[in-house]
Amino acid sequence: MDLVLEQLRRVLEDDAVGIVGIYGMGGVGKTALLSRFHNEFLADATHLDVVIFIDACRGLGVDRIQRMIGDRLGLSRKNRGSQEENAATLFRVLNKMTFVLILDGVCRSLDLRMVGVPIPRRRSKCKIVLATRNEDLCDQMGAKKKIKVEALPWDAAWKLFTETAGEEMIDSHPGIRRQAEILVRKCGGLPLALIAVARALASKRSLEEWKHAVAIMNSDPSQLPGVAEHVLRPLKLSYDLLPDDTLRSCALHFALYREGCRLHQNLLQECWIGEGILGDFEDVEEANNRAGYLLGVLSAASLIDRVDANGYTRMHPVIRATVLWIACECGKKENRWFVREREGLTDAPDAETWAGAKRLALGYNEIAVLPEAPRCPDLVSLKLKNNLGLEKIPDGFFGFMPSLAFLDLHSTSIKELPPGIGNLVGLQFLELCGTKLKSLPKELGALTKLKYLGLNWTVDLASIPDGVIRDLDQLRVLRMIVSYRSWKAGSSGDGVDMGELEALNRLRILDITVGTAAALERLAQSRRLAPATVALLIKGCRGLSSIELPSVLGKNMKRLKWLRASHSKELEDVVIGGGGGGGGLENLVLEHLLKAKIVWRGSHGQNLRGLYIYGCNGMEQLIYQKDDEEAEDGRASGGAAIVPFPNLTEIALRGLPELKRVSEERKMLVFPSLESMEVAECPKLKKLTLVAEKLREIKCPRSWWDQLEWEEEDDATKSAFQLIMKPLQ
């Protein structure tokens, strides 16, 4: 708070800033901050004619705010008229004064001109300070300076809690102190929660009482005295103020994950597609943009935090407790949302829990047995992800789940789906990634409302009945990387005809594994499948001797982001920069290719972010430069340095016993964006002829590092690389 106060003081002295916005989540201390600002800096400010402090937390209208300002200015209520007349009066009075207007708890955009408040001009001593939970409101109201109020760091949070609960009592028993530390962590530095929880425990003197309080905070914080009234209900306002139900559904979705969990946009986006939250979209880019927009609104509303620039977000533990409480109808229906992830559960919930639940989240536990036929008429969502001991789903398990729309069986050990899966006619999201399925049942074709089907990493999946894929005509997303690959491209042979995939008119995102050159050609030429392909695994493909990126994959395959080629004795050239459309590839994986080499032909490859090469036994040189008249970039011919992939951030080289060099003799590879490099099992690679100024780690065995050879002029490079070398075990 002292740091923010200092920023406010400097703004008060900065004549270039007329409007300042203070924002942060509810309960973080914005009101207390403004009170201190008023008392410590404004109350005795001799250059000010008036300071006006208005609590706008109830969404006050223009008329009410006009009356409050008029009262503060001493204007008679008898002479007040229409809204426009009052605005003119206030403007005329305030325009002659040096004022500071503080608006606390702003929850909707307010047109200050309609109120009658003059907007401070440059070199004016007048200030307008507004405090809100929503960062966007600061911009909408013209704030020239924005200040975020963060949650308290640990030391300050601990001090606030212990002073409120009583330091002597907390220090009376080491067990109580440990429980107090748990409670402070669960409050996440939020003063509102710290004070409420501390007051609830202030009179508790036994260790058992404190342990019970921790158990309540873990299961249902609303049961702790004062928490529902003084914490959850005030924070609910942030949820209520979201502009539509779509955003409220997005906020609620975060409560289905364990407390403190970092969630990537891609994960949320897939779930939101499956639940219909994102609606229809034309391609993966539009889905990305829509999901990013929704997350941006939630972040601005202080309901989630952006963890980093890589798409990860997190919900504050107290905000999560609030939305979970809201989902359970403000505590009226306990366990309506039954979320028990990573709690070491060995048994499935009892029959009563199944019967009353709307959503069950039981991921990352040790559940091995499911009930035979649970009756759950209201169950919409069931998450069983990462229960590794779960090998079988009872035949009657899906018999009484008429409302189920979301089913996540990711990384369970199930080997088959029961025929009863066909009863889930309302299912929209089905995640089977990482399971041990060997075949799909024909009853899967009854799931005609399915929008998302995840089958990535189902390595044993070898059989799909004819017609099943075609029947899923509402699919938007189909994930099948490291999965079924026996696609039939013509009239002969075994496997599922690729025409079934082409019949999916609504398909927008496709991850696929192909095992024949004919299937690859059919995919690349398909005007429906090629534009939807985001990830592609080419496995085997007898007769395929080269891959030319991007042109050989067809001008239609413009959205391909991830390509992996593996297990081929014939594939020799992976040519990057072959002309044509596309060029958006971000990750390239080459694995177990006996003869493969990378040939770079010019400016294409601009978007490549990751290059991973594993087990390519015949590879002697990392990158070959094709020096011909087709090279589009001047760096592609002549000179001592080439820049093949300017945006590459990560490279991994493993199991390359014949690799001797990274580039041609007297050629230096330049990677201006490279941050991480891994080298292992490359015994003949003796020199690193590359320039990477942003490199922050080289992961490699110590024995390999010690045998590297350096030229005399490479001393500076060697010293720099030595500092970032991280030995592999």
Task: Write up this protein.
The protein is of the alpha/beta class and 729 residues long. The strands form six sheets. Strands 9-10-11-12-13-14-15-18-19-21-23-25-28-30-32-33 form a 16-stranded parallel beta sheet, with helices on both faces. Helix 17 links the parallel strand 9 (337-339) and strand 10. Helices cover 29% and strands 18% of the residues. Mean pLDDT is 91; it is low at 628-638. The protein is globular and about 90 Å long. GO terms for molecular function: ADP binding; ATP binding.
Descriptive key words:
729 residues; 16-stranded parallel beta sheet; 29% helix; 22 helices; five-stranded parallel beta sheet; 33 strands; globular; alpha/beta
In brief:
It contains 22 helices and 33 strands. It has a 16-stranded parallel β-sheet, with helices on both faces. Strands 2-3-4-1-5 form a five-stranded parallel β-sheet, with helices on both faces. Strands 20-22-24-26 form a four-stranded parallel β-sheet, with no helix packed on it. The longest helix is centred in the middle third of the chain and has 17 residues, at 284-300.
Distance between the termini: 45 Å
Helix-residue proportion? 25-40%
Strand order of the largest sheet: 9-10-11-12-13-14-15-18-19-21-23-25-28-30-32-33
Quaternary structure type: single chain
| CA radius of gyration | 31 Å
Strand content: 15-25%
Kindly name the structural category: alpha/beta
Reported for the largest beta sheet, the result is: 16 strands, parallel
Mean pLDDT: 91
Give the overall shape: globular
Tally of strands: 33
Unreliable sequence segments: 628-638
Number of DSSP helices? Answer: 22
Keywords: ATP-binding, Nucleotide-binding, Plant defense, Repeat
GO molecular function: ADP binding; ATP binding
Protein name: Disease resistance protein
InterPro entries: Apaf_helical, At4g27190-like_LRR, LRR_dom_sf, LRR_R13L4/SHOC2-like, NB-ARC, P-loop_NTPase, Plant_NBS-LRR
